TrEMBL record:
<dbReference type="Pfam" id="PF01381">
    <property type="entry name" value="HTH_3"/>
</dbReference>
<dbReference type="GO" id="GO:0003677">
    <property type="term" value="F:DNA binding"/>
</dbReference>
<dbReference type="InterPro" id="IPR010982">
    <property type="entry name" value="Lambda_DNA-bd_dom_sf"/>
</dbReference>
<feature type="domain" description="HTH cro/C1-type">
    <location>
        <begin position="26"/>
        <end position="82"/>
    </location>
</feature>
<protein>
    <submittedName>
        <fullName>Transcriptional regulator with XRE-family HTH domain</fullName>
    </submittedName>
</protein>
<dbReference type="InterPro" id="IPR001387">
    <property type="entry name" value="Cro/C1-type_HTH"/>
</dbReference>
Length: 83
């Protein structure tokens, strides 16, 4: 029997100021969609280590790969004008 994925809380701040903050949003979306890390990595065509490192804000995941994962999971990044 497959295990149910417990949704991770969505971060309360919408400010992404470091890799960990981005990773928290990615994990929250993945778990909200009911995907375990293996399923999501397969969907995104990346290794489990790559996705795990991105979610933990560690390692050297390229910006290109991070945006690819975000697109595959249906995450959009919006930037508000400043000044």
């Amino acid at each position: 029997m497959a295990r149910t994925v417990k949704p991770t809380a969505i971060p309360t701040s919408n400010i992404i100021s470091d890799p960990l903050a981005l990773g928290m949003f990615i994990r929250a979306k993945r778990t909200a969609d009911g995907l375990n890390i293996h399923e999501a990595a397969a969907l995104c065509n990346v290794s489990v280590d790559t996705l795990g490192n991105l979610e933990k804000g560690t390692g050297t995941v390229s910006l290109e790969k991070a945006f690819h994962i975000m697109r595959m999971l249906g995450i959009e990044l919006h930037i508000e004008p400043w000044g």
